[in-house]
Amino acid sequence: MLKLAQRMGRAKPSAIMAVAEKAKALKAAGRDIISFSIGVPNFLPGPHVYAAAAASLQKDSGQYGSNRGADALLDAFLLHIEAVGLTGYTRANCSTGIGAKHVLYSLAEALLDEGDTLAYAVPYWTTYADIAEIVGAKSLQLPCPASQNYKLTPAQLEAALATKPKVFLFNNPSNPTGMVYTREEVSALADVVARYPDTWIITDDIYNRMVFDGLGYHNFVHFRPELRDRVIFVDSLSKTYGMPGWRVGFIAGPESVAKAVTTLNSNHITNIPEVVTAAGVAALSGPQDVPTQKNAEFQAKRDQVMAVMNAIPGLICPRPQGAFYVFPDISCAFGKSHGGMKINNDVDFCNALLEAKGVACVPGSAFGEPKSLRISYTCPTPQLAPGLQRFQEFFAELT
Question: Could you say which DSSP state residue 166 is in?
């Protein structure tokens, strides 16, 4: 009997997309569903992006493009990252991919041999664990519960790096928690990283322009410039510019790593299409009023969501300062029931919430933290208050 490759037994479909599909099916069946599930920004880029894409079609070459990425796109990205203090990089330090997820997978292929270890904090974005399994790497998961604001401590990182993992993957701002590491916290972690030269560092920081409260974005190389030789910065157009479907991801890092990703591109994707490249250049180098406005709106929505989280007895929810997520610890509901449905865990909670109130959230176990769930508050503004009210009512009705 013919069989698939063994790695397919390790590959899993996205848990986030599974929740989104279930909510979509219920909505199609006539249910009034409010989705707090999928992490899409739910806004569109500025008109200049579409104008650039349309103009590119009028002069389409019909040819293959660069495996690394078009010079204009790389130059726009370099100017973009200079704005957050990542200076001194050149085109040779950069490469592109079909979204940040593709870039991360390419980095896993480039850096991790079978049996190598990938270290990362928990809660984590679901793809981290999935990619590690597909490439045959081991995951060293570092628990960061709500009691420590879902943040990695220097002591935890010290203990992890002492075991010499091949790669340490750091996510700031965080998906799924929305937490942002302060200047002092990133500096302290950078000091630890500097003591362990045998580990590559990937900073998955695609929400670096979505930071609230004047906190600012900080990277290890800001405090330890010598780490440039092994820190790989990952970015994307998806969240900042409302362009998740356009699929453009970037890296900036050591030349050897950028070259490796470019080589993989030559086998995987060849190049990013011309029309997408034109849109990407326009997004990065054109007016920034849309992302600036949306960041302010997301901060206001964060405040609206946190007002409800703080009003629910027993619920623990560290206050996020970036991205567009909150990640409440809902374990106070475990052992209770709603409408005859017993809630033993996060999956039971989310299923009951969806069935009873028509509110879709992603169980925390999808992110390695089964005491919690993720709320993405990017739904249309008129839906946010009713969705939060249903969420609060659900808790009030638990017995």
Answer: S
